[in-house]
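## retry 2 of 3
previous attempt timed out at serialization; input unchanged, resubmitting
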Amino acid sequence: MYFFFFQAEDGIRDLVRSRGLGDVYKRQMIPDLNPNGLIGGTFSPEDGSISPLLAVHSFYTNAHQAGVKFQFHEPVKSLIIENGKVIGVTTPQGTYYADIIINAGGPWSREVGAMGGVNIEVHPDSHEAAITEGVAHFLDPMIVDIRPAEGSSNFYFYQHLTGQIIFCITPNPPAWGMDQRETSNFLPMVTRRMLEVMPKLKNIRVRRTWRGLYPMTPDGFPIIGWAREVDNFLQVTGMCGQGLICLLYTSDAADDLLCVDIGGRRIFKKKKNMSILDLPHIQQIQLINPTTEKEFFSSHTLF
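## retry succeeded, writing output
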């Protein structure tokens, strides 16, 4: 469950009032919210969350059982290209050949693409997060504050099933680059904003912080398609920090490019030099990025 809330200008303020859902309802839903200056918000009861660690472990376990081989701790050093085709990769431990090479390098995608002469417009953006000690359950939905503030554009926090509060902030301006070292200004910035929203959090102790990378694209949409410059080189990258959210669309799009139905079975195929602009999945991806007020509020409860 997600709860987005905002302080709004007159246009949104009138829209909130017109829906006829008042402060009593939202305060009952999240009684510890600070009501001062709070105009309203949206509640998304059908949204959910997933553990990245458990999800990836599940993917690995099922893939391993299906016969997939994993080579860990082997960074790709170069691509093997013959007659305009990518046919393999080299790592410090050896050389591997394949019919199709997929660039799913996330924030490292541009480097991998450059090995094949492909310019992938993916740029890493550093985001910091933290987790607190575990406390008794008191918070159901994830809180997302979409108001911009000095040094940040938005932030969120939620309570994990095990009691810890997990929180993250979107820096503004973006922190471009590969630096994953924690900074000294993250906790003062985000905790100040969190306490403004929910003062009850002030005595909970923070246990750990970390910093990760979002693979950002210029337009905020994923890049899924065949490279034009060389054959057999598929790009599946640029999820802009929404990799798990885009997972079903991403896997369906990649599957459509790689496989075809023959006699009721999915058979591996090859396509070459398909333009990224020709991909049929782009409209599907856009459905999870509503661009109009009507689309947004039709999928959320406003109060």
